[in-house]
Amino acid sequence: MDKRAPYKARIARSFPLHEMGDYETLELIHRLSLQDAQERKATLDRAYPRTGLTDERLALEVHTKELNQSLQRVVDAKVVRRLNPTPVDSQRKDVGNVEIKDRKTAPESAVPPIRPKAAPVRGTASRGRGRGGKVAANARPTKPSAPSPTVDCVGCHDPIGQQSHILTRCGHAYDPKCVVNMVEAATKDENLFPPRCCGQEIPKRAIVPLLPNDTRLKYDAAVKEFAIDRRERVYCNRKGCSRFLSRATTEDEPTSSIFCKICSARTCSRCGGRAHSKLLQCRRKAM
């Protein structure tokens, strides 16, 4: 008799990413669930080493994949939350409930009453004034426009409204403020570049229009820098500057002196050290 318990009873279910969730707790839950799944897989491999791909093992693989994807979304959302300089999360536990409460407690006098319009009768409409001195309507009543749907920013959870924003491939929206914060962090940390949401890269054509000039320059510089392998980059040799200059030249290419526009120092394009005469050998070769 097979004493194995049902698969779903032995693993933790994956928790959906809630837009106002505690990301630290969600990340811990996902990592513990992954640990349970890995332990279950190890138990199956030891107990049934010759068994092929059973239903339980297939379900375990699918569940592990879903947990990894959900964990990546939690980590991305946590990074955005950390970069966003909005009020403390303790003051924003439930934005949706606060908005609903505000609508309910708002004084009725703040909203002007809407008076229903009488529909015109066809065949009796005429121009000008009739015998009774009343103006006859000859136009059809206009239908009230439907309210535009509100979208909340996944970073700060503020309603975006009609302002420009980014809608990612995974369906999340970012307002301009959170986009700038995300790009600023990505230009300083290569591990965060390019900006991503749920593990998917956000296209450059969607980011650039929302950036101010100074952030756009940093973003363009990061695109050029991070496109080059780390071992082939040349940075300014002056301490305290270390600005990215260009790609290193190889032994088959002529060595040049690269001028830094920030500190005016000159750097050898091959060894990355202080610029020197071409007659002198480089202290180290470009890797």
Short description:
The chain has 287 residues and is mostly helical. It has helices at 7-10, 23-47, 55-83, 95-105, 176-188, 204-207, 213-226; strands spanning 166-167, 173-174, 196-197, 200-201, 233-235, 244-247, 257-259, 266-268.
Key structural traits:
287 residues, mainly alpha, Herpes Virus-1, two-stranded antiparallel ribbon, 7 helices, 35% helix, flat
State the domain count. 3
Can you tell me the CATH topology of the largest domain?
Herpes Virus-1
Mean pLDDT: 74
Output the structural class.
mainly alpha
- Report the CATH C-level class of the largest domain: Alpha Beta
List the helices and strands and how they pair.
Layout lengths: L6 H4 L12 H25 L7 H29 L11 H11 L60 E2 L5 E2 L1 H13 L7 E2 L2 E2 L2 H4 L5 H14 L6 E3 L8 E4 L9 E3 L6 E3 L19
Antiparallel strand pairs: 1-2, 3-4, 5-6, 7-8
Keywords: Metal-binding, Ubl conjugation pathway, Zinc, Zinc-finger
Protein name: IBR domain-containing protein
Pfam families: IBR
